[in-house]
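Hi everyone,

Forwarding the result from last night's run.
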Amino acid sequence: MLRPLLRASSAAASTVLNASGYVTARRQATVSSKFTGKVTEVLIEEGMQVEADQVLARLDDSNIRTSMALAEAQLVSTRTSLKETEALLTEAHANLRRTRNLLERGLSSEAEMDGARAAAGSLEAQYERKQADVRVAERQVDVYRQQLEDTVIRAPFAGVVVAKNAQPGEMISPV
């Protein structure tokens, strides 16, 4: 039976790999805001490790918060107006039914029926318009909510901060 004997050669055991080159990142991104704004807070330093979606900086959001509060108040007002129109529409439908019953019994005129029908139709149109107004107001609140979120600058992926090019009080822009 053959038994091979394996030994490391002294030349292979003492070989050291010497190399030179560059270390480059697989992913690199310049992170900036989506709009021009004043930096209020910078939460990173060069060389710092960050996680994906970690907050890096914040921009001044005072004007957007004020606009969002106005949009939310308009939404409440629009919803209230819709409820008012809904109540008036319910009353108009009841009046239309009563007028129709009276007309069938000969106790009401065609003119009164026409008036009740017109009132109900007008309120139905107002109700539909106010439903659309509520949807528009909701979208406006969504727009301001997104703008508010855009004042927070986040890391697109985990990595190491190479450079910090903004300080609190500076104006920055997307470019």
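The radius of gyration is 35 Å.

Cheers,
N.
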